[in-house]
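Notes, p. 3: input format for complexes.
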Amino acid sequence: MIAFEKALKLVISSAKPVLTEQVTLLYALNRVLAEDIFSDIDMPPFNKSAMDGFACRQEDLKNDLGIIDEIPAGTIPSKIISRNQCARIMTGAMVPEGADFVIMKEYIDEIAPNQIHCNKEIFKTNICYTGEDVKAGALVIKKGEIISPSMVAILASVGCSDPLVFKIPTVAIISTGNELVEPNEIPGISKIRNSNSYQLAAQTQQLGVRPDYLGIVRDDEESLENVLAMALEKYDVTIISGGVSVGDFDFVPKILNQQNVNIKVHGMDVRPGKHLLFGQRANHFIFGMPGNPVSSFVQFEVLVRPFLFALMGRTKVESLLHLPIEEDYLRKKGDQLIFVPVTLTSNGTVLPLEYHGSAHIHAYIHAQAIMEIPKSISFIKKGEIVSVRPL
Ligand code: AMP
Ligand code: MG
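Output follows (391 residues plus magnesium ion):
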């Protein structure tokens, strides 16, 4: 039995992202960048008008101005603006030589054909200057960042049409248990429906990974041996639920030992999820999730999720929120690290939900976060700060 924090370190340090691929920018959202991105150009690349209006010299702003040119976006101005002259200019067009101000169209009077006068005092130049956003050669996005919609725009504007990203791992999901039937079946006496496989598949998909589901395996050594041998060969990560605790039919640890899996974690001082197992064989990893639905849900969030993110090259760790608790909290029993379902109120406080233990997955339906209560703490007074992990 080891401390949860130690298990988490062991698990995360085992994840070494190696494989990369290029993806088209159109479908790069949420992928993790495997390269630093530098700008190949200044942004903006030329002095650009921020408004539809008239480009002129600042010193002529109070004078009548003669229009000598028209500059649509995407064209090169052909005339130089000199004393008491201006050019009609569109948003995004290049500011002509000689001009250092753009008067908004809304602020002029047409006093004669091709003659305007500015009717307002203006202070802003309405020019976006060459390189003021980004200089050519500058690092714009770092390796390890998750590509967001605004990053997609940056990648496009610096000419990165096929960014190099970390490969998404292949993941297999298995459930074990003689008591399990699939959701479309009516459970006979002493049977229950398999909810873990679908819950784990959903949690995996939230990370942008599409898992394969390998079905329910009965609690017999041969069936388990066959499916685990295959999964460990074929998938980067196998997530198996049930069969990892200390019951007479909990064969998963024994079989993994036989298959030369290095079991790095088996048993943590935490609730729920005490019996979690984590093992590695070469570049293949396996998580044995405790069968109780809350245990497998919570341990996925706190352990498997950061592992999969690390395997996908995410360098930023998701941080906990530290917020005041809405009411007194008394821990009923035990002195281990525990995870508790909570909601977050509109006042920014943490409200624990009614929770009956690791089979009570309904408690999590409306949970917005998981509160962590450290080992030594058994009572928390209203208003004290607690740590929560948003869901
Ligand atoms: P185990 O970890 O196999 O000892 O299972 C612990 C508890 O979780 C038992 O009450 C099981 O019936 C339940 N359980 C195991 N696997 C699943 C599953 N796939 N879906 C829902 N409950 C399960
Ligand atoms: Mg079982």
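The two ends are 27 Å apart (CA to CA).
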